[in-house]
Amino acid sequence: MNDKPVTVPDLLQMKAKRERIVMVTAYDATFAAIFDNAGVDALLVGDSLGMVVQGHKNTLPVTLEHVLYHTAAVARGSRRAHLVADMPFMSYQVSPEEALRSAGRLIQEGGAHAVKLEGGQRVLPQIAKIVAAGIPVMGHIGLTPQSVHQLGGFKVQGKERSTAHEIVADARALEDAGCYAVVLESIPAELAAEVTDRLTVPTIGIGAGARCDGQVLVGYDLLGLNPGFKPKFLKTFSDLNATVLAAVRQYAEEVRTGVFPAEEHTFHAKTLRLVEDLPEADGPERVYGVPV
């Protein structure tokens, strides 16, 4: 594996060479380091953290401060993967100027290499403003979770001819506005293939079939840490939920039975003196002091 950091030009070159891009969401330094060492090309600090970390039903409660916190943690844990930070709900919708301020903070304070925002033609002014400031922007169309109420839930998009044409138009508009990549979420595979063929920038699919230039999954989901979440597009590559449950149950049993901590987990000091002249509380106490 090449230790050279993955950049925007690298991802564009991967599209040109027909090399698949691997992206995973991360929210902390520990998982970021694991995914980075596994050789993923890009890490996304998704506003999905609202659901998998914070326990909300959707991504709408996530704030810019939340994403900043988690992006900074992921940046400290990774060394080569391209780092993208999600722009959460209401961090870019108000105005292009507000969008630029939010994006700038994610780069300057969070350590992100790029930002991602949802929407097609309606967010072109925001994208243009951010790109003009030298900040790379990844687009996101199809199922856009921040519009969950408008869409009527987490549903596949682009199944009708009219909505499919709209997604194609949005994708081309995002590329023209300067996006270096576009996430395609929950759209028919045939539509995703058409969009991928029409764009010169990479497409990153989630629930969009195999013809995209890359794929992204939520880290917790692909590791099987969320066993109740089983959408059609998800493949779990491990069952860490069962592994963690077994480990914690064993730990609890060993604590309760006195097996842990054992002698090999215990510190000793050869030089200790007994302190007997401390003020008494509820009753006589003997406290062991530190070596003197």
Question: Which helices and strands, and how do they pair?
Answer:
Layout (H helix, E strand, L loop, with lengths): L7 H9 L4 E5 L3 H9 L4 E4 L3 H4 L11 H14 L4 E5 L9 H13 L5 E3 L7 H9 L4 E6 L5 H4 L9 H17 L3 E5 L3 H10 L4 E4 L7 E4 L1 H4 L17 H18 L16 E2 L11 E2 L4
Parallel strand pairs: 1-2, 1-8, 2-3, 3-4, 4-5, 5-6, 6-7, 7-8
Antiparallel strand pairs: 9-10
State the domain count: 1
Distance between the termini: 52 Å
Q: Count of DSSP helices? A: 11
Number of strands: 10
Low confidence ranges: none
Share of helical residues: 25-40%
Order of helices and strands: HEHEHHEHEHEHHEHEEHHEE
Name of the top-level CATH class: Alpha Beta
How would you characterize this protein structure?
- The chain has 292 residues and is of the alpha/beta class.
- It has one domain: Phosphoenolpyruvate-binding domains (TIM Barrel, Alpha-Beta Barrel).
- The chain has 11 helices and 10 strands.
- It has helices at residues 8-16, 29-37, 49-52, 64-77, 96-108, 124-132, 148-151, 161-177, 189-198, 219-222, 240-257; strands spanning 21-25, 42-45, 82-86, 114-116, 137-142, 181-185, 203-206, 214-217, 274-275, 287-288.
- The chain has an 8-stranded parallel beta barrel with strand order 1-2-3-4-5-6-7-8, surrounded by 7 helices. A two-stranded antiparallel ribbon has the order 9-10.
- Helix 6 (124-132) links the parallel strand 4 (114-116) and strand 5.
- Helix 2 (29-37) crosses helix 4 and helix 5 (96-108) packs across helix 6 (124-132).
- The chain is elongated.
- It starts with 7 loop residues before the first helix and ends with a strand.
- The mean pLDDT is 94.
